Structures are given as structure tokens and as C-alpha cells.
Predict the 3D structure of the following.
Amino acid sequence: MRPAIARPRAGVYAAVMRLRSDIFVSALMRRVFARGDFAAVEAKGAEEAGAVFVRQVLRDGTESLHAPAPQSFFEDDDTGRRLFETRLERVDAQAVADAIARERRFDGDLWVVSIEADDVSGLIAFAGAEPRDDGFFRR
């Protein structure tokens, strides 16, 4: 006789393995180089679970900053992939540097990866336009 396995209930979160930050950054850089673009690690954070920020340097001299998406963007059945949101788009380099400095004061374990490419959509996954309603935050 086989033991009965209970089905997960609504509202119960299952643990999903997430790729370590150092492995994610290494794979990201390999994909950038494979496309013929350039990438460099500006700041190395916690190897296991540091937040990863992507600083995109565009040809016209402007920069964009892509940061980890808030948890409200993730679905219940998420596969553990990293989702990003664009915090700053096509601004001067100093604005991006200031934003990274503010984040670093809050979280000293973050990674900053600088990518010189006009398009990063094939390199990192972006969260949807609308966060899902998780019951905690009201609009």
C-alpha cells in the first residue's frame, strides 16, 4: 500500500531552487560575449544570493539600470528564474551611478554587471508590466 501524498493547498509556498548569483553572473557574461558585446563585473556581491543589477551602456553615451523585480511580479509556480525591471532608462551615467550608490548603502551584497549593448532583452528576463495582486499590497 502506497502512502497518500497530500496535494499542495492554495497559499502554501513550495521551495524553488534558485541559481546562485555568481553562476548567474558568469552565465550572463558568457552570453554577452557570445553575442559580440562587452560585459564587466563592476561590483561583486554575495556569491550565493546577492542581488544582481545590470548597468546597460548604450552607444549614444546614455545608460539604463535594470534591477531585480519586486516579489509581486512573480507567479506562484515560478521556476526560480531571475526577473528584472528597468529602473532608469537612457539617462546620463551619473544618474545611474547615484542610483547604484543608494542601493549599495541599503544592500552591500549586491552585484553590478555593466553591459555595453544596445539591446539586453535576449540576455535578461523582464517582469510583466503589472504586478500580480498578492493580497498584501493595495493599489
